[in-house]
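cron nightly-structures :: item 1 of 1
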Amino acid sequence: MKENKIVYGLIGFGGMGKWHTEILENVPEIELAGIYDIKEEKRKLAEEAGFHTYETEEAMLADESIDVILVATPNDTHRPHCAPWRRGKMSL
């Protein structure tokens, strides 16, 4: 936790991922560390929107500043993203 803020990483920058960034940017106690998406074009869109991106999910999980991983991928793809629990991070 950074200065009484919860720092999160976002997996997935489609419709739900974008929605989450818009909603959570208005919560002063929450800070976005960066975004990972399996699709390079989505990562480029995130960068163009001013967000830090990670080239791999593993790189995001290795970022010690992140407290929570928010999974915003299609529902049927959530299960593969259980790795945060194995790395000691919470996941939503």
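cron nightly-structures :: done
The helical segments are 15-24, 40-48, 57-62, 83-86.
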